[in-house]
Structures are given as structure tokens and as C-alpha cells.
Amino acid sequence: MARSAHQRQEGGGVALTLGAAALSPLLAWRDLVYIAAGFAGIVALCLMLVQPLLIRAWLPGLTPPRARRGHRLVGQVLTVCVLLHVAGLWITSPPDVIDVLLFRSPTPFGIWGAIALWSVLATAILALLRTRWPGLRRHWRGAHGLLTFAVVAATVAHVLPIAGTMEPRTKLALCGLVIAGFAAALPSLVAGARRSGTR
Q1: How many angstroms separate the CA atoms of 16 and 37, rounded?
Q2: I need a surface site. Which of 30, 158, 195, 199 has the fewest CB within 10 A?
């Protein structure tokens, strides 16, 4: 029952967030590239809700092996969404994006965005190296858990202060669900890291 309630909450959080953002009056003053970049970021945040359900194999009809494959696929899509988010913002304002990437942004949420971006990319690179570098497998789960914490914490700190397309209440609820999802997946991450460390 708790699992089903968690799934309904996450599904409702995603739908409400995307719907509220799509109806934002601020979209009338934005160009298409900026809107696409913003929604790529919103979709990436929503996908962070799906990942804990997959890592715990909580989605109905998915066996653990399929859930793990789905987790990897969603991770790849999430990474692409983050890159599209940054690329779209680069097209609209290259100097601002350069300042963010170099940690020179005058706004704190820009710094948190850079931390989230580099943590996502580090996770993707480690995932690629894991299949090519056998020695990394022993430490993969621990490193993945730490990077996931960095991604979630930095993303929430990046998103919350921004007064933009996302409606404040649904944005706050979505960020809360992302944190709750990470907390729900934490026991699996810790157990996996301990098993890998004892091999």
C-alpha cells in the first residue's frame, strides 16, 4: 500500500508540475529555444522521480532485471535532457552559461546548477567506464550513491530559488518528492555499496 501511494504521489507530482509550467503566463514572453531549454530541465527533474522507483523495482509489471535496465535507460535520457537544457540556455545567452560552467555566476542558483551538471556528467562517464574498466565495478555503487546525492541536493538548490516557468507550489512539491525518492532508494544504494566493497 505504501509503495502504491508513493507511485501515485510521484505520478501526480509530475503531471501537476508539467501542467502548471505549460500554463505559465511567463511563456508568452519567452522565445522557443528558451522554452525548450526550460522544459528539458523540468523533464530531467521529473525523471529523477522515476529513478528511485526503478532502482527499488517498484513499478508494476517490471521484474528487477528489467527495472535495472530501465534505470540505466532513464539515466541516459536524463543526461540528454540536462545537456539540452544547458545547450538551449547557451544559445540564448552564452556569457551567462560560461559564467555558470566556470563557477563565476553571481547568482547562487547558477553555482548549484553547475554542480548538478558536472555531477550528472560524472555519473554518466562512470557508468560508461564501468563496462570497460573492471576495477571500477567494486567501487561503482558507492561512487554512484555519492554522485546521486550531489545531483539531487544541487538540483533542488538550483531549482527552488528560480522565479520562472515552474509554479512555486508544484515546484516545491516536486522537489520534496525527489528528495523523498532518494531517501527511499538510499537503503538499496548503501546495501549495494557494502556488497561491492566486500567482494
Answers
A1: 19
A2: 199
Find, among 70, 73, 72, the residue nearest to 57 by Cα.
70
pLDDT of residue 110: 94
Q: What is the pLDDT of residues 63-111, one digit of tens each?
A: 888 988 999 999 999 999 999 999 999 999 999 999 999 999 899 999 9
SS3 of residue 137 by DSSP: helix
Q: Compute the distance between CA of residue 48 and CA of residue 65 in angstroms, rounded to an integer.
A: 19
Ranked by mean pLDDT, the top range of 131-135, 170-174, 193-197 is 170-174
| Cα distances (Å, whole numbers) of residue 136 to 79, 177, 186 | 21, 31, 21
For 32, 140, 173, 178, 190, the CA distances from 195, given in Å and listed in that order, are 47, 11, 34, 26, 9
State the Cα–Cα distance between residues 180 and 182, nearest whole angstrom.
5
Q: Provide the pLDDT for residue 191.
A: 63
Q: What is the mean pLDDT of residues 14-23?
A: 80
pLDDT at residue number 1: 44
- Give the H/E segment covering residue 41: helix 32-55
168 SS3 class: helix
Residues sharing a CB contact under 8 Å with residue 47, sequence separation 6 or more, in sequence order? 74, 77, 78, 81
Residue extents of the structural domains in the chain = 2-197
